[in-house]
Amino acid sequence: MESWFTSKCGLSLLSSFQKGLQLLTNPTTTIKSSKSSSNVNVGSGKKMFNGNNGIGGGGDGEEDGFDFSAPPPFKIADIRAAIPKHCWVKDPLKSLSYVLRDLIIVFLLAFIATYFDNVVLWALYWAAQGTMFWAIFVLGHDCGHGSFSDSPKLNSFVGLCLHSFILVPYHGWRISHRTHHQNHGHVENDESWHPLTEKVYKELPDKSRKMRFSVPFPLFAYPAYLWHRSPGKTGSHFNPNSDLFHPNERKEVIVSTICWLLMAALLVVASCVFGPIQILKLYSVPYWIFVMWLDFVTYLHHHGYDRKLPWYRGKEWSYLRGGLTTVDRDYGWINNIHHDIGTHVIHHLFPQIPHYHLVEATKSAKHVLGKYYREPKRSGPLPIHLLEILTKSLKQDHYVSDTGEIVYYQTDPQLFESSNKSE
């Protein structure tokens, strides 16, 4: 998703509305991706150290003699054994109760905003409703992982309905997200938010580099990613014939694309009936708030820890080591609203665990993970502290080396210097 900004289409689209935005200011593991498989295991490989310090120092991932990139002394089975058995149980009624809760809040917010029709209330509505759209996305995300229930039919039906409502092609996204989980932490094979190599980075025009690493542009990447995917990877989440999908998955992709089109058509009809301004206020603005939440959260789960975290290639990568590069985050009051998605390490290792068991599962596994688990910084009621982490990461995490099986993000010291000079 992140690397969509290197594409010609992405750069063209971003350039066209740049002025408008300114105005608005482990054991051997075999993993298969959608169409290819990577047989990799933990072995010895050359580590490529970053010459620049990470955020808060420790650019090579080491502190007090501890190296995050070292193969862990435990296996994924050890983590699994530490998690209570009831944490693996999926309760469809409980999952559906969260869907009902979120939908009631969504329609209640829309009713209140429309009834009072107040400028201040509309602003509050946009923030609240955009957050609820994001919560709905997370429930659909759980359906995609099969953690919603043990029934594939129920998962598909609920996920398709929820994601279509917020203009996400459920099956297309579900399949690519599966690839992300199966290849997390791999420089080339990861599907979303994987780093640019130095070669690709240096081939970017100056303007695209600045936009890519300057808020708010990275927070609007998701819709274009769905349409065009990332540079170097062909296909679209809407196209059943793209390289993302196996032939036997094409029917599902067609279904989700049709549902997406039906929702888009419904919005057009609603605009004709109620007026485009009303639909803009009720749906479009919250939709873009949801997109910002999605990009914000997913970026921070794979970037921006106090020290640089490793990315892997070749024999140094394994499912366990890749999963341990993910980062938990505390979102304060938002934790419950967006279904504890901040407990991301255990979720990435065991995506089949229901969201309502993730907090307990994480606590139970900490003693096994040891220093490989990075305790998140505690948030106030709202996760304002994460904005600083986001901006720091965007200023320092620019690219990784073209070679090496263990690499770290490096910084282009001239990126923002040239920007300041041009101003």
From TrEMBL:
- An annotated GO cellular component: membrane
Query: Source organism's superkingdom?
Result: Eukaryota
Question: Among its keywords, does the record have Transmembrane?
Answer: yes
For the Fatty acid desaturase N-terminal domain, which residue ranges apply? 53-110
Name the InterPro entries for this protein. Answer: FA_desaturase_dom (IPR005804), FAS_N (IPR021863), Fatty_acid_desaturase (IPR012171)
Q: Which residues cross the membrane?
A: 98-116, 253-279
The pathway that the record names for this protein is: Lipid metabolism
User: Is Transmembrane helix there in the keyword field?
Assistant: yes
Q: Enumerate the spans annotated as Fatty acid desaturase domain.
A: 122-373
Q: Which CDD domains match?
A: Delta12-FADS-like
The UniProt GO MF terms for this protein read:
oxidoreductase activity, acting on paired donors, with oxidation of a pair of donors resulting in the reduction of molecular oxygen to two molecules of water
The GO biological-process annotations, alphabetized, read as: lipid metabolic process
Alphabetic keyword roster: Membrane, Oxidoreductase, Transmembrane, Transmembrane helix
Q: Please classify the protein's predominant subcellular localization into one broad category.
A: membrane
Q: Where in the cell is it found?
A: Membrane
Q: What is this protein called?
A: Fatty acid desaturase domain-containing protein
Q: What is the lineage of its organism?
A: Eukaryota, Viridiplantae, Streptophyta, Embryophyta, Tracheophyta
